[in-house]
Amino acid sequence: MIKYSAKNHACYDTALNYKSLPDDLVEITTEEHKTFMGENIPDGKRLIEAAYPFAFEDIPESTNEELVVIEKSWRDSELSTTDKYGLSDFPDSDFKTLMIVYRQELRDYPDKTGFPNCDRPSEPE
């Protein structure tokens, strides 16, 4: 049996031997547990924490400043992942040339017109 604590926003399997349990536990259905675990959540919604019965709210749109941080973080991760292609001891090949161009596109990405609301550079295949 699975129980939910709104106070802790956590689920507990009563088949396990906990030293202590919250005093606000309520039994929940398998479907409710799946919802709590992230299944059955409608697109564009998120579970409201510490609410039972479970309810959803709209996921707010990111501000432009938040999008800049998200996109720069993605770009930095891509640059880090592809560092090896810029090393002088990486064998020369057509792919290496494509990756060097891609890395330059990544560095230029924040200066692109419309950033952060523009297409990301595409990694060569």
> Rounded to an integer, what's the Rg over CA atoms?
23 Å
Q: Kindly, what is the distance between the CA atoms of the first and last residues, rounded to a whole number of angstroms?
A: 48 Å
> What is the N-to-C order of secondary-structure elements (H for helix, E for strand)?
EEEHEEHH
Q: Which residue ranges are poorly predicted, with pLDDT under 50 across at least 5 consecutive positions?
A: none
What percentage of the residues does DSSP assign to strands (E)? Answer: 5-15%
What share of the residues lie within helices?
A: 25-40%
Gross morphology is elongated
Largest sheet: number of strands, sense, barrel closure: 3 strands, antiparallel
How many DSSP helices?
3
Count the beta strands.
Answer: 5
- The mean pLDDT is 94
In short:
With 125 residues, the chain is α+β, with helices and mostly antiparallel strands.
Task: Write up this protein.
- With 125 residues, this protein is α+β, with helices and mostly antiparallel strands.
- The chain folds into 2 domains: 2-58, no CATH class; 64-111.
- It contains 3 helices and 5 strands, in the order βββαββαα.
- The strands form 2 sheets. A 3-stranded antiparallel sheet has the order 2-1-3, covered by helices on one side.
- The longest helix is centred in the middle third of the chain and has 18 residues, at 64-81.
- The mean pLDDT is 94.
